[in-house]
Design a protein that fits this description.
The chain is α/β, with parallel strands linked by helices. The chain has two domains: 173 residues, Rossmann fold (3-Layer(aba) Sandwich); 82 residues, Pantoate-beta-alanine ligase, C-terminal domain (Pantoate--beta-alanine Ligase, Chain: A,domain 2, 2-Layer Sandwich), CATH 3.30.1300.10. The protein is 39% helix and 19% strand. Helix 9 packs antiparallel against helix 10.
Length: 280
C-alpha cells in the first residue's frame, strides 16, 4: 500500500471506518514530525501489532511556552512522508491548527493534576496540559486499538496512561523503549540544535543517569545522587540542569525506594538544546 495523506478529521474517520468494516485493527503513532529512527521504530512496532497504522504530524502550539521554539521547530513533512512510506505506514494525518482546535482555538483542556505539574510540568508550566489535550483529541478522532509512545518521554507516557485510564478512553497505550545512537544519546528531533562540540558532550547525560541508577542499587540516596549527577553534567559542559531525580516509576512524585521499580529522569541544557532522558 502507498502512504495516504489526510488533513481533516472527517477524512481520518472515514478511512478508519472503512478499515473497521473490513475487520482490521488500527494503531496510532502521534508525532510532531521531524521524524528520526526513534519515530520509525514506533511505527514498526505498531505495524507488528496492528493491521493498519496511522501516523499523525502536528506541531502542537498548546504545549510550547512563550519563550520556547514553536516558530523554529523543524517542519519537514515531505521528508517525513517519504520515511513513513519506506517503512510501510498506511496513513498520515497532518491537520492544521484550525482543524485541530477550531477557528477560536478551543477553550477546553485536559489537565492531569499533580503528575502533570512536577518535573517537566514544573519547568514548562502548561506543557502537559497541551500534551494531554492534543493526545486526547487524536485518540478520540482516530479511536485506534493501540497508540504507541516512546519511553524517552517517560513522564509524558505516564501522564497519557493516567488520563486514558481516568477518562475511560478505549485505547491501549503502549510504551516503546528509547532508541539511542551508538554512544548512548537518545534520539530526538531537538538533537539537530547541537553543534559538533556539543554533540560530543551530549552522551554524558545518558552515562550520568546510568551511573546514578547503578549507584542507587548499591546504596546511594536519591538526594545525594541528584546533587552528584547535576555537578557531573555542569562540569562536563552542560550549561544548566533543570533536574536529575530518582523516583518511583509508577507515579514519579515519590522518591525511589529500594526494591520498587524506579526511574532516573533528567533534563539539562546544552547550547540551544534542552535534552531529556531517563533510565529504569
Amino acid at each position: 500500500m502507498t502512504l495516504a495523506i489526510v488533513r481533516t478529521v472527517a477524512d481520518l474517520r472515514a478511512q478508519v471506518k472503512e478499515w473497521r468494516a473490513n475487520g482490521l485493527s488500527v494503531g496510532l503513532v502521534p508525532t510532531m514530525g521531524a521524524l528520526h529512527d526513534g519515530h520509525l521504530t514506533l511505527v514498526q512496532t505498531a505495524l507488528a501489532k496492528c493491521d493498519r497504522v496511522i501516523v499523525t504530524i502536528f506541531v502542537n502550539p498548546k504545549q510550547f511556552g512563550p519563550n520556547e521554539d514553536l516558530d523554529t521547530y523543524p517542519r519537514t513533512e515531505k521528508e517525513d512522508s517519504e520515511k513513513l512510506a519506506s517503512v510501510g505506514g498506511h496513513l498520515l494525518f497532518a491537520p492544521n491548527v484550525s482543524e485541530m482546535y477550531g477557528e477560536d482555538g478551543g477553550i477546553t483542556k485536559v489537565k492531569v493534576e499533580g503528575l502533570g505539574d512536577i518535573l517537566e510540568g514544573a519547568c514548562r508550566p502548561g506543557f502537559f496540559d497541551g500534551v494531554a489535550t492534543v493526545v486526547s483529541k487524536l485518540l478520540l478522532q482516530a479511536l485506534p486499538d493501540y497508540a504507541f509512545f516512546g519511553e524517552k518521554d517517560y513522564q509524558q507516557l505516564t501522564v497519557i496512561k493516567r488520563f486514558v485510564a481516568d477518562l475511560n478512553i478505549p485505547v491501549t497505550i503502549e510504551g516503546v523503549p528509547t532508541v539511542r545512537e551508538t554512544d548512548g544519546l537518545a534520539l530526538s528531533s531537538r538533537n539537530a540544535y547541537l553543534n559538533r562540540e556539543e554533540r560530543e558532550i551530549a552522551p554524558l547525560l545518558y552515562r550520568t543517569i546510568s551511573e546514578v541508577s547503578e549507584r542507587f542499587k548499591v546504596g546511594g540516596t536519591p538526594q545525594a545522587l541528584s546533587k552528584w549527577a547535576a555537578q557531573q553534567l555542569l562540569d562536563g559542559g552542560f550549561q544548566k540542569v533543570d533536574y536529575v531525580v530518582v523516583r518511583k516509576a509508577n507515579d514519579l512524585a515519590s522518591e525511589a525506594v529500594k526494591g520498587e521499580a524506579i526511574r532516573v529522569l533528567a533534563a539539562a541544557f546544552l547550547g540551544k538544546a534542552r535534552l531529556i532522558d531517563n533510565v529504569a
